């Protein structure tokens, strides 16, 4: 006697459809690439912006060409003269020329010179609106800063790099150093 195992019977199609997912209306898109995050240092945080407040200021813009330094020096001298600073013209002209030449060599199509004064000090900032390689900036910065420090009325100077370009700045004492006894002036 042969017996059939229980539950086995003839194969009959089910009376209801099986559970299948509905087809999608749109095809699946590949994930979009995410922009690379800028590396930030946990110690430094975001770089502060330069702020000049509560003093006389002016901004001059020039096309970054070979004549920009001379034009900037002449217009800076005129502006500082309007503010009442007549002394230290030679150092002022030299400092502006050095700063603007450094900004022009940094690349870009324009250079802006920002001036401010307070308590007998004149701040000159030259901004190149173009980022260049770090090696170019380091090589130029050392020679430029040495030339600026050699000027008689420069109190301090420096460079800075940001998203908007390289900043070169100098702080000049508008009153020349006092005359020392026993020396002659020419």
Tell me the overall shape. rod-shaped
Separation of termini? 136 Å
Question: Which structural class matches the secondary elements?
Answer: alpha+beta
Biggest sheet strand order reads: 1-2-3-5-4
> Mind telling me the C-alpha Rg?
34 Å
Beta strands, count: 5
Q: Outline the biggest β-sheet.
A: 5 strands, antiparallel
Would you write up a description of this structure?
This protein has 186 residues and is α+β, with helices and mostly antiparallel strands. The protein is built from 3 helices and 5 strands, in the order E-H-H-E-E-H-E-E. The protein has helices at residues 68-82, 89-105, 134-149, and strands spanning 56-63, 110-118, 121-128, 154-162, 165-173. The chain has a 5-stranded antiparallel sheet, covered by helices on one side. A hairpin with a 2-residue loop joins strand 4 and strand 5. Helix 2 packs antiparallel against helix 3. The longest helix has 17 residues, at 89-105. Mean pLDDT is 77; it is low at 179-186.
Features:
single chain; 186 residues; five-stranded antiparallel sheet; 5 strands; rod-shaped
Q: TL;DR of this structure?
A:
By secondary structure, the chain is of the alpha+beta class. It is built from three helices and five strands, in the order βααββαββ. The chain starts with 55 loop residues before the first strand and ends in a 13-residue tail after the last strand.
Write the layout of secondary structure elements.
Blueprint: E1 56-63, H1 68-82, H2 89-105, E2 110-118, E3 121-128, H3 134-149, E4 154-162, E5 165-173
Antiparallel strand pairs: 1-2, 2-3, 3-5, 4-5
């Amino acid at each position: 006697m042969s017996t059939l195992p229980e539950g086995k019977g003839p194969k009959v199609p089910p009376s209801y459809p099986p559970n299948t997912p509905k087809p999608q209306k749109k095809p699946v898109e590949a994930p979009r690439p995410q922009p690379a995050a800028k590396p930030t240092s946990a110690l430094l945080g975001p770089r502060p912006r330069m702020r000049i407040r509560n003093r006389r200021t002016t901004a001059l813009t020039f096309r970054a060409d070979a004549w920009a330094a001379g034009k900037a020096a002449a217009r800076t001298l005129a502006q500082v003269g309007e503010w009442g600073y007549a002394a230290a013209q030679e150092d002022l002209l030299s400092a502006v020329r050095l700063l603007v030449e450094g900004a022009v060599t940094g690349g870009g199509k324009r250079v802006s010179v920002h001036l401010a004064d307070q308590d007998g000090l004149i701040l000159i900032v030259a901004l190149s609106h173009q980022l260049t390689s770090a090696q170019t900036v380091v090589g130029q910065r050392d020679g430029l800063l040495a030339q600026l420090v050699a000027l008689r009325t420069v109190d301090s100077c420096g460079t800075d790099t940001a998203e908007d370009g390289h900043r070169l700045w100098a702080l000049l004492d508008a009153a020349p150093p006092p005359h020392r006894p026993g020396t002659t002036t020419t």
